[in-house]
Specification:
The protein has 268 residues and is α/β, with parallel strands linked by helices. It has one domain: Rossmann fold (3-Layer(aba) Sandwich). Helix content is 32%, strand content 18%. The chain has helices spanning 81-94, 107-118, 143-149, 154-165, 168-172, 187-198, 227-235, 251-254, 256-267, and strands spanning 8-13, 19-25, 32-36, 58-62, 100-105, 123-129, 213-218, 239-244. The chain has an eight-stranded mixed β-sheet with strand order 1-2-4-3-5-6-7-8, sandwiched between helices. Helix 1 crosses helix 2 (107-118). The radius of gyration is 17 Å and the shape is globular.
């Protein structure tokens, strides 16, 4: 497994004063693959998963504002998936990447939609997993899920989140999840990230995505119901959907051998 100390680290400044923490692995001359993680998570989300791509790709991650080692200019700015997509372009510019493959999961898929629609020439191929187009047409998580994730007891919240991410079989193997949030985030940053996801709306811009697109989803996903995958596919011009039976929100991690292989084949 690639350890954090083995990554190539650098800091990229933005025009509004933020300093983005960026991490790279893989051959520097290989095709660039930008990995975009879920809400309230740093690049640690990709621990282990990054290994599936680092041999053939120059993998690139960055810590969103409010997570990891990124230093945001202030917490009062209007954070959005559009702003995070602008940050992603800033990272690609700093690394000299004209066009990258992009793999976005959960909120990272929302950021990827904004990146691919606003800067279509910067995205060569696009993979969207367990995500949503947002807006009025999106299928949102139910009230029971929202209540489970809003429990006052932190341990209960974590257990609820893990249950939404993985099937019972995952727990039998006693694996560690890297998908349950950045423990170093402030409460204010968590609130802003929640707002970033909630206000996402790409319905009217999905048609501007020019990159061939693969949409991946688990059909047992209660966090982002699978109907959202089909909504995206109806609006992105060159798109196909693959649904994993029984997959929950973290299916790309639980079933990483087959899912990552599908992603590699698509990017190739």
């Amino acid at each position: 497994m690639i350890e954090d100390s083995q990554l190539r680290h650098r800091t990229v400044p933005t025009s509004d004063g933020a300093r983005l923490a960026v991490q790279e692995s893989g051959p520097a001359d290989a095709p660039a693959l930008l990995l975009l993680q879920g809400q309230a998570n740093s690049h640690d989300w990709w621990t282990g998963l990054r290994d599936d791509f680092a041999r053939d790709f120059r993998t690139i991650t960055f810590d969103y504002r409010g997570t990891g080692d990124t230093q945001a200019a202030e917490y009062d700015v209007d954070w959005s998936t559009g702003l995070f997509a602008t940050d992603a372009r800033c990272v690609l510019d700093a690394l000299g990447v004209q066009a990258a493959y992009v793999y976005g999961t959960s909120m990272g898929g929302r950021v990827a939609q904004m990146l691919a629609s606003s800067a279509p020439t910067r995205v060569a191929r696009l993979v969207l997993a367990c995500t949503s187009p947002g807006g009025a047409l999106a299928h949102e998580r139910g009230g029971e899920v929202r209540r489970a994730l809003a429990q006052p007891d932190e341990g209960a919240r974590v257990r609820a989140l893990l249950d939404l991410m993985y099937t019972p079989a995952w727990f039998d193997r006693h694996r560690r999840s890297h998908l349950i949030g950045d423990p170093g985030m402030t409460g204010r940053a968590r609130t802003l990230h929640l707002r970033v996801s909630a206000r996402h709306d790409a319905v009217d811009v999905l048609a501007q995505i020019a990159a061939p697109t693969l949409v991946l989803h688990g059909d047992a996903d209660l966090m982002a119901p699978v109907a959202n995958a089909h909504l995206i596919a109806e609006r992105v011009p060159d798109c196909r959907v693959v649904v994993l039976p029984g997959g929950r929100h973290g299916f790309f991690d639980e079933f990483r051998d087959s899912v990552s292989a599908d992603v590699r084949r698509f990017l190739a």
